[in-house]
């Protein structure tokens, strides 16, 4: 069963970071699908400036809005410079993604042409800021190991929540508490506290 963030969520908007894009440089265009619920760490820190004096601060050009580059036309899309990636075993995550990162919809059509559909799918387009939550209560499916009520939740493998402390010499990092054991659907209530 795949790891998933379920619809039940209880968090404060003050605990959401909207400053980072997911780093998709190692992913193939047309196949970018990073699911919501992934625990992420900072790859490129936020800064209040960029290399281009034209752009203000913390933003970057992420490519043309079209497929062709006609002469004398500037049609760039804006994105953020600061990036996050999935946290792996032994790394401390900054938070958990609340939206998917996708470049195409279920029909293979580019979401950069359909921002409303991306919003309806709770997805962000690569290069745009993805909401990252640092604390709250979330229902997740597919937690690794056997979670127990009151047990410690850890970040393990690649961006997943686990009940395991890890194996020597690399220990998993504690990220919160389980508020119950997994039910028959494999869903567990987790209190995230980063």
Would you mind describing this structure in some detail?
- It is built from one helix and 19 strands.
- Strands 1-13-19-18-14-15 form a six-stranded antiparallel β-sheet, with no helix packed on it. Strands 2-12-9-5-8-3 form a six-stranded mixed β-sheet, with no helix packed on it. A three-stranded mixed β-sheet has the order 4-10-11.
- The radius of gyration is 18 Å and the shape is globular.
- The chain has one domain.
- By secondary structure, the protein is mainly β.
- The mean pLDDT is 87.
List the helices and strands and how they pair.
Blueprint: E1 4-10, E2 16-17, E3 21-22, E4 33-34, E5 39-44, E6 59-64, E7 76-80, E8 83-86, E9 95-97, E10 100-102, H1 115-120, E11 123-124, E12 132-133, E13 135-141, E14 152-156, E15 160-162, E16 166-167, E17 170-171, E18 173-178, E19 187-193
Parallel strand pairs: 3-8, 10-11
Antiparallel strand pairs: 1-13, 2-12, 4-10, 5-8, 5-9, 6-7, 9-12, 13-19, 14-15, 14-18, 16-17, 18-19
């Amino acid at each position: 069963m795949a790891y998933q963030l379920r619809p039940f969520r209880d968090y404060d908007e003050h605990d959401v970071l909207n400053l980072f894009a997911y780093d998709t440089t190692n992913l193939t265009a047309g196949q970018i699908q990073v699911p919501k619920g992934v625990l992420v760490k900072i790859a490129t820190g936020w800064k209040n400036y960029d290399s281009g004096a034209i752009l203000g601060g913390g933003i970057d050009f992420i490519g043309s809005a079209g497929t062709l580059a006609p002469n004398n036309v500037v049609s760039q899309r804006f994105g953020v410079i600061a990036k996050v990636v999935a946290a792996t075993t032994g790394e401390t995550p900054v938070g958990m993604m609340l939206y998917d990162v996708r470049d195409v919809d279920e029909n293979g059509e580019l979401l950069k042409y359909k921002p409303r559909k991306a919003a309806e799918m709770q997805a962000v387009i690569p290069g745009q800021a993805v909401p990252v939550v640092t604390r709250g209560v979330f229902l997740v499916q597919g937690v690794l190991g056997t979670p127990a009520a009151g047990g410690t939740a850890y970040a393990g493998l690649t961006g997943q929540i686990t009940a395991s402390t890890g194996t020597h010499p690399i220990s998993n990092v504690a990220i919160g508490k389980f508020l119950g054991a997994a039910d028959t659907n494999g869903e567990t209530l987790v209190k995230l506290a980063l």
